[in-house]
Design goal:
The structure is a homotetramer. The first copy, chain A, has helices at residues 15-33, 52-71, 82-85, 110-129, 136-166, 233-241, 253-262, 299-308, 316-323; strands at residues 191-194, 197-201, 217-221, 224-227, 270-273, 276-281, 284-287, 358-364, 390-393, 410-412, 421-422, 426-428. By secondary structure, chain A is α+β, with helices and mostly antiparallel strands. In chain A, the strands form four sheets. A four-stranded mixed β-sheet of chain A has the order 10-9-8-11. Chain A is globular. Mean pLDDT of chain A is 94; it is low at 1-13. The C-D interface holds C 89, 91-92, 198, 217-222, 224, 248-249, 251-256, 299-300, 303, 312, 362-364, 366-367, 369-370, 379-380, 384-388, 390, 414, 428 and D 89, 91-92, 198, 217-222, 224, 248-249, 251-256, 299-300, 303, 312, 315, 362-364, 366-367, 369-370, 379-380, 384-388, 390, 414, 428.
Chain lengths: 430, 430, 430, 430
């Protein structure tokens, strides 16, 4: 069983360690953007997507607004308008620049943004070197939050870049040096049985988590079955072939409206070329691997597939109970595939719970019993999104290794599918 | 404690009793529309609203499509096009006429619809008199469902009529013979403490319920507090006066967008006249009674109020645990007020759980563990709406007496507020 | 040649004649609505359409607002809110009730509107009986305008009723007592040659015209050809068969967008039933008569047809030069067909210039040189619509006999087609 | 009097001259973009605007599609997808990439576009050097059209760049080296009287014009007055101060809807800073010069101003009659101000007819009598836009010197105002 206490996480209260993590994570964000052209940094291909240079600036603004301005004596903001331009959604901090217009800004340029990052990094370096004792704990907590925040945006950078390039009729690849994942033989999924009763889920203890993972609390579960792997492309192809996208009885009402309105016929990024299904990856157009987890499907599609298969999606509690026993290991970003890959066929127990694809659960994103937001403006971090969205679990091939946890709650609207999203089936014990 | 087994509900399998209920309920629908002009029957004041004559026809179509056509030998449909016009949303039954266009139909006329009702009623009368033994159980179950369905539409008739008249600048009253409810003294709410642990919620047994109330199952609850009455108009006025509608930190993100986009400043139907708040009732414009439950607020408003008050909304399980101990009695439609009324000040324990206003809970509308839909087309009845909506409990002043139950799950989108919707607060024990 | 001076028009300054015209025209409006159900009076099937009861009230409001209130001593308005509800677009008179919401009003009822009409008629009767000498001329001029205004709405009543019934899947007929027009043999169109040079168009003299027909002024025309009859359904069918709706090179850019966006494949109200084209008429669905003028086409369709045919639409000046020589006679409303009918094959010269269909011209609706609006609020009558619209000429099968003139300028947006609109071709000499 | 025959225009049939013009004009387009950052080249700030790199590519595509592919033996297209990406609106050439999505393309990059330009230029250089005799005339005509086309896009580049930078909250300047125009004293406008009668307008002769300027034809004009200069900022400020934007009686109906819907309170790019009106110029924010022509107003605003001033806009024929007598000289792009400047106070006769601002006329953009489009796909060049737009005359401070003519017809929708658009008043004699 995975024991959180054993995680060799750096002590966030130790400035040296924090400074290292700061430097590493900040450098990684820039490395992610290094294969991009200047032009790629500017595009907002849909309202959900932000231009890469906006991400690079926004994560810096987070440190400026929540760490440097309150705690770094004599800190001078880089530019008086950036507070307006790069505030994402903190309404209590000031009116943010409208999200759907982020792609209308040619200035600040990419070079300006890099200068902004350097300016913030210099000040952060100084602050970390001479941490005012009085607020050391609060500062360290905010920096830690800021770094996890930047890691989230690293994942968003990859998914947004994929969408920006995927929208382009020229179908450019993000990187042409990515190796093809090794093929694996097909393997039928197996049901794993879990015992019901009172379980505990959610986070406890001192390690970093988001507010929405807390408090740890009891839930009652019936006995349940969980598939030992996510649904694959091959399985999803059978759903398509069986008219899945044309049969209203398989869909939630809102899902059916979405399918009809958007004309969906397959997961996002799928294209049929000369009769064969391909999909866009960060390495360019590739044939669909039938044994890899299906990806870029909405909650509606996951739910419809489950109904078609005579199963259902797991609740987030069921998922967490299964995942709590597993090591947090899998096809994360550092594995280098940047796409979901076929699971191994040998071995037992659940696999691919972590990495590959975020897994849609059947749980709406709502607060845990006793949930408390952070105080002040940072209280807007997670809590205000607790309506209309569904919980996803486990992390993806674009998630930084070390970022995900068994208790980690990701959340998106049921019609969104540009993240690396898939699902696994659950069911009742006969 | 309310014991469902003691409910003197008529045995739905007994044809005579079923025929009586059929006759009563069908007559009631027409009685509800009797104060309307012909013109009132035609209007669709927004996409959520249906014209009253559409309701009158649709509930008849339900019996025609699901009882008479499959089970009444030689039944002849009243009109070949009605199946298309009055199918509400059963996609597997055929493509329904588009909902937002229901207000574009002058024909069939109100008189035509009454003839349609009579045609269906005659056939139903004959069928009930000579129930084919072979399918008696299935027929009785479908008729019972059809009657509960018609009761739901009776409530919708009242809320839709209110909206149709409320949209009209002439502010006509639905009825001018409605008495004013008696005034009650103000009374501060009290917190009632409930013990946590494993509880059971949901319906079991043979009595009629919708599929979404089943199966009865265990849930784990922490200790919780529940207010002994809903939030009142007077309390909500304090929220307004404190800038509640102008402070983003009180709102869910989707809620804040809605408030901004729609320009909400008060509950629906509220108007300030010469400095005093009035609201439209089915009896016309009336001064707001500070001691009556606040009504016509969205989930977003309920949630924002709760945050402002340092509390939260109860989950549906908490609500049901509290309600299961109470008699199903209150200000339902038959009380004759057709508006929420101030609660009594004497007595102890929770009040107004049933009737007055549907109470928003903090629970998203999702299936219970082990949920199964009805088979065939009727499987679309409830299950397909299980995304994006929130659960409301308890029934309202427009709900037919006998229709609601402690296990009854109503559901609406978080931005809707034209139903008789209010809320009560919950909180953590100390 | 048609000499306007000889028109035996009643002298509008003679009260007795005016009172007769008033009584006749007012009665005719009600007669037009008499075949309707109460429900038909309420519907607004699209934003361009007004509910018939709105028309009946609005034309009465015109007399109340512009004649009775300013000139009838002691006149008491029927209802204080009607000024708001039935003001169509006179912004300087007060903010009008939003046009697209006219179909949301069940009240005032049809009976209320009839009472309103009677109230106005009584007061008008009294005013006409005791015309205050001082303002007699102004009053008579306004009444005359009000009556022409009501005649315009009589035509709109017929076109709106057609749309209201035509939107209904039950395809009800407005009247089932309308005879079928007699069939006529096909006849190829002939070109009539007109000599260019300086011509005069527009109205002069004392007879009633709208402000937009004045002043009479000179225009220079090149020699031109004009078809001796409008384009027929049979000719338009050849355009459809030749892929007319699928070939972008035939269309104006805005027209092509409209065709693509709206999915047009044929004129409005056309339906192919068992392979044969039918169209909705006020008498119900009828087979398309190949020899009758094509109707319910937009300017875009008329223009595309003309390009396909190697011709063009006439300018309004060309049309008027041709029409000024013809008697104002044709298939107007009083002919009783209420649809365009095939023209006679014998005879010479232009035919069907008046009646049958309003003919799209190639002229944008702009002011004549020296145009002056009426003073005060009535100045909004015509002038403010002089952008974005095209001129149509000649009157239709729904226009009251005596209402149209050679100088009459009707105008609609190029994408509108619910009026009885057709066109005739023009071309260059040689 | 300006005599077109004397214009020392290079003979477009002489290859050497054509090659020079080609080289100059192509180089100018790149010079216009040289002050831009790479990021500026990518933005589409509204649907009407195209990204600068799109302009640079599209004008090259024009030569590729209409000159090189048909006439350059062995020409190899630069990229197979560019034909799709950079076709602006030639539907008969293939389905164009959707205009409102031009800002979603990061690729081809700016460098790619420059390579594309060089590729086309090389091939054009070769073609011009060895012009195939057989098609020399057609080729020269198409190249000439392509160069005028590129000049039009040079003007659009400046107006689109202004909008792209003007949309940015940082308000960057296009160039910070632009001098301030010299101040001029105020001078009241004078009316110039023109005699009516039969006039000729439109182009004749062999010199280059667009198809829409032809044929030269007669028109009849009444005597008219024309202001000797455009309306100034100072005059327009008086309109604003007099409540011009709040008074519906001054506006066309469509104009009033636009003002209400868009919330216009002043011309585009105007901002009140500390009580003083400033406007964005290509040199950055500048105080409004009261003596310079008002600019960035829509037809609706021009028309409302004229009504407020008791005047009207001139027709395009009136404007052309006045302009035909004047030299084609004024504040064009080469003057270097890149903004409208105050006119001189000395001298007589009309001034600023050419340059400074395109002047809205009261004429809808429709074909001249006898208009013929170019044959083939190039027939889409002008003719298909002849609905819904108004004619503007005279050229602006962003128009290349030598591009405009007295007969030149520019056209925009009445609500557009991002071009350098102003107006002058006209009126009736006496």
């Amino acid at each position: 069983m995975h024991n959180r206490a054993e995680t060799p996480a750096p002590d966030p209260m130790r400035p040296a360690s924090l400074a290292d993590r700061y430097a590493n994570i900040r450098a990684t964000s820039e490395a992610i953007c290094s294969p991009l052209t200047t032009e790629d940094h500017v595009i907002q291909s849909m309202a959900d997507v932000s231009p890469p240079k906006w991400h690079l600036a926004h994560v810096s603004w987070f440190f400026e607004a929540f760490v440097l301005q309150p705690f770094a004596p004599g800190y001078r903001v880089f530019h008086p308008h950036y507070d307006f331009l790069f505030n994402s959604y903190y309404e209590t901090h000031g009116t943010p620049y409208p999200r759907p217009k982020r792609g209308l800004l040619s200035r600040p340029t990419v070079a300006d943004v890099h200068r902004y990052r350097a300016h913030v990094d210099d000040a952060m370096h100084d602050l970390l070197a001479t941490l005012p004792q009085e607020h050391a704990e609060e500062i360290a907590a905010r920096i830690s939050l800021g770094l996890h925040h930047e890691e989230q945006h690293q994942e968003l950078l990859l998914t947004d870049i994929k969408h920006i390039l995927g929208t382009n009729p020229l179908r450019p690849a993000y990187r042409d040096d990515l190796p093809d994942p090794p093929a694996q033989p097909a393997r039928a999924p197996a049901w794993l049985a879990y015992e019901g009763g009172v379980h505990e889920i959610g986070a406890a203890g001192d390690h970093f988590t988001y507010d929405n993972e807390r408090p740890r609390h009891r839930v009652y579960l019936e006995d349940f079955l969980l598939a030992d792997r996510p649904v694959t492309n091959g399985e999803f192809l059978a759903f398509i072939a069986d008219g899945g996208y044309q049969r209203p009885e398989l869909w939630l009402s809102d899902g059916w409206s979405t399918v009809q309105g958007a004309g969906w016929q397959a997961p996002l990024y799928w294209e049929r070329i000369d009769g064969a299904w391909h999909h866009l990856t960060l390495a360019g157009l590739r044939p669909v691997d039938e044994n890899a987890p299906v990806c870029h499907v909405s909650f509606y599609e996951a739910d419809a597939y489950a109904r078609w298969a005579g199963a259902r999606l797991p609740t987030e509690a069921e998922w967490e109970v299964a995942a709590a026993e597993q090591p947090v290991a899998g096809n994360f970003r550092e594995a280098g595939w940047l796409q979901p890959v076929a699971g191994l066929t040998r071995g037992r127990g659940p696999r691919q719970l972590f990495g590959d694809v975020w897994e849609w659960t059947g749980s709406a994103y709502r607060p845990y019993p006793g949930f408390r937001t952070l105080s002040g403006t940072l209280g807007e971090y997670n809590g205000k999104f607790m309506s209309g969205q569904m919980v996803l679990r486990g992390g993806s091939c674009a998630t930084p290794d070390g970022h995900a946890r068994a208790t980690y709650r990701n959340f998106f609207y049921p019609g969104q599918r540009w993240q690396f999203m898939g699902f696994r089936l659950a069911g009742e014990t006969q």
